[in-house]
Each structure stands twice: as C-alpha cells, then as structure tokens.
C-alpha cells in the first residue's frame, strides 16, 4: 500500500512539473533589457573567430544592435549585410537608414555569414 501512495505522489509531482514546463509564460523580448549592446560587425567577427564560443555567449540572449538597413522585406530586414532580423509584425524601417534593433539571437548561418535574430523590434 505504501508503494502505491509513493508512486501516486511521485506521478503527481512529475505531472505538475511537466505541465508547468510546457505551459510556461513566453518571453517578451521587446520589454526585456538587452544583455548585450554591440555593432553588427563586432558580433559577426566574434562568430567568425569561434562560432561555438560565440553561440554559447549569445544564443537565446537579448541583443541590441545599431546598423544600416541593407535589405528590407515586410517582416524582416538585414543590417549591414550581416545581421538578419525577423519581426513578428510588419516593420516600418527604410532602406539605407540607420536603426537600433533589439532581438533574440537564434544562431549563426556560416554559409551566408549572418547572425540570425528573431522577435525583433525597432527601438525609437
């Protein structure tokens, strides 16, 4: 009988923990303070030097960058040909203008030599 009670309690604890993990609140990158402030060149150079170390440093972190818009689409843009920024909403930046962007680093594309950011927002 004691084994059944212990098993039931253990099952209940695991179930509650799993539920809380799956249904946790999502991050709001727009309201978070950036962990790193830098330029597109500096971050890309770090990834070119050692992608593994830079990945551990920047991956899933909020980053603020200032650069020139070199490519522009409805829901994404590219800064200085090296930082790909994906937005959740249509953004209002202009080609060849300087912007300050905050987003979450999701990795480095060594083929295109671009750092990828998502959940980006333009800082006024």
Structure description:
Helices cover 31% and strands 36% of the residues. It is α/β, with parallel strands linked by helices. The protein has one domain (29-123): Nucleic acid-binding proteins (OB fold (Dihydrolipoamide Acetyltransferase, E2P)). The termini are far apart. The mean pLDDT is 90.
In short:
This protein is of the alpha/beta class and 124 residues long. It has three helices and six strands.
Radius of gyration: 20 Å
Structural class: alpha/beta
Q: Strand percentage, roughly?
A: 35-45%
Give the low-pLDDT segments. Answer: none
Q: Order of strands side by side in the largest beta sheet?
A: 2-3-4-6-5
CATH class: Mainly Beta
Number of domains: 1
The helix fraction, in percent, is: 25-40%
Report the end-to-end length measured between terminal Cα atoms. Answer: 64 Å
- The helix tally amounts to 3
Q: Name the CATH superfamily classification.
A: Nucleic acid-binding proteins
Give the oligomeric state of the chains in this entry, treating copies of one chain as homo and distinct chains as hetero.
single chain
Task: Round the mean pLDDT to the nearest integer and report it.
Answer: 90
What is the approximate shape?
A: elongated
Secondary structure: number of strands = 6
Following the backbone from N to C, one meets helices and strands in this order, namely HEHHEEEEE
| CATH fold call | OB fold (Dihydrolipoamide Acetyltransferase, E2P)
CATH architecture: Beta Barrel
- Could you describe the largest sheet, including whether it forms a barrel? 5 strands, mixed, barrel
Protein name: tRNA_anti-like
Organism: Algibacter marinivivus
Pfam families: tRNA_anti-like
InterPro entries: Protein_unknown_function_OB
